[in-house]
Amino acid sequence: MDMKKLLVVAIFSMAGCFAYAADISGIKSKADSGDSEAQYNLAVRYAKGDGVKKNPSEMIKWYKKAAQQGHIKAQFELGLLYYFGNAVERDLSEAVKLWRKAAEQGYDEAQYNLGVCYENGNGVKSDYNEAFKWYKKAADQKHPSSINALGLCYITGRGVNKNLQKAVEYFMAAAELGYAESMFNVGISYDNGNGVKKDEKEAAKWYMKSAENGYLKGQYVMGMCYENGSGVEQNFAEAAKWYAIVAKEGVPAAVKKLLGLANKNVAEAQYELSVCYNRGLGVKMDTAEALKWLKKSAEQGYAEAQFSLGLNYYTGRTVERNWTEAVKWYRKAAEQGNMQAQQNLGVCYYKGRGVKENPSEAVKWWRKAAEQGSLESMYNLGIYYYENKDIKGNLKEAMKWWRKLAERDDVEAQFKMGMCYMESGKDGVNLSEAIRWFGKAAEQGHAEAQYNLGMCYYSGNGVERDLKKAEKLYRAAAEQGNVGGQCNLGLYYIQEKRDNVRGYAWILLSVKNGLEDLTSKLAELEKQMDKGEIERAKKLAEEYSKGNFDK
To answer: Which pLDDT score, from 0 to 100, does residue 550 have?
Structure first.
């Protein structure tokens, strides 16, 4: 068991970071007057560049001022800076000094870090008794890392008499607080019979808990459990799954384990090994080796590998592009229920790539994928039915699929819902629902929705007429390059604000972006403007084209 404990890093994550809603000048004023909380918050602002330019020297200055006044979090975080040598020269003894001040005020993170320093002799002479003392103080406050540390102390007899049963009690206590390392340590205890009766099934249970909570060692050991049938029924596929998770963190030992399973023709391991070779995870990147293992897995019928191989053939990424082969492998995976393969097979049928164009088959596969939750397929179904909206029932079908996306805040689907409602209802339109969905999309910055909603507010169509809202929406759309928004904003300036210069500039920009029919409007405007105004308008249009907008 690795007894080494890592220092807790919690830089700038404290709840007090944004305690003041006041502007930076207000915080500075309070800090200058000696308010320690303001000094701390100002230090954090300088650290994060929040409201001020990042400035390490100012950050240190204000942390020191707050720390000198006994501000616990300032003492703790300044200690972290000294410990790691961030923005200051590394000084472990100074870190210990600061953490001691915070620890003596009862701050559990500082107490834990002080314990680590005493245990490892960092910035202070190694003293296991002192380490145990500070771990205990933090543990009494239900600090999970410290509770786990106490368990390790009881296992090793550092700072306390060795007591394996007591160690398990502490590991259990930390595990109940959700501490994954302690879950793993409980597993080790059952595995080795340390402080509890040896029980492989119970060990595997706790290893699994740690693995599911993201603990890397637990994930690796679960791979071993499934590979060897230790505490669980032997399952090479499950073993490969856990080894793969660890391998993706770049651990060579996990890749070696996958290779062993792959050589035993475990399809899942072959696929995961191909991923490792393809991405250079825990092994040197080798696309040829990746393709070799991918094909082996696909040929054994592993759906994920079949989809991935199909994607390779479709894109020509690691093999010569071959849409016919892509369709072949997509189909194999799709028939096994692979959602991504179903989506992509639908695209192939829709576009006639590798197979004869067949919209009905495309819809069939998209529907299968959509029913499994494929957002792409939902969107594609909406597009298909909308494009064929003249067929009875198709507009409702388009809305059915787009609504699923729109309710998940998909901005494009929200816009599409607005367009559908413009064409539904007794008289061919349902303005209130159209405006509602345009509004949702507009709030997320959808330019065309902003333009459409702007027109509604300008004309009072479905909403109370509001020229200010119309202008705001037109401008938002125009500044994103929407030609309709540019045109209408230009007309708004001319008609409502009697500002021919800005009006001309926006209309000119819309013409340059494709609305050539408005060239006559420019000619008409030029008759009402002098040469100086025209020149200013053209220069303004040039600035707009560069993204330099006036307000």
So the answer is: 80
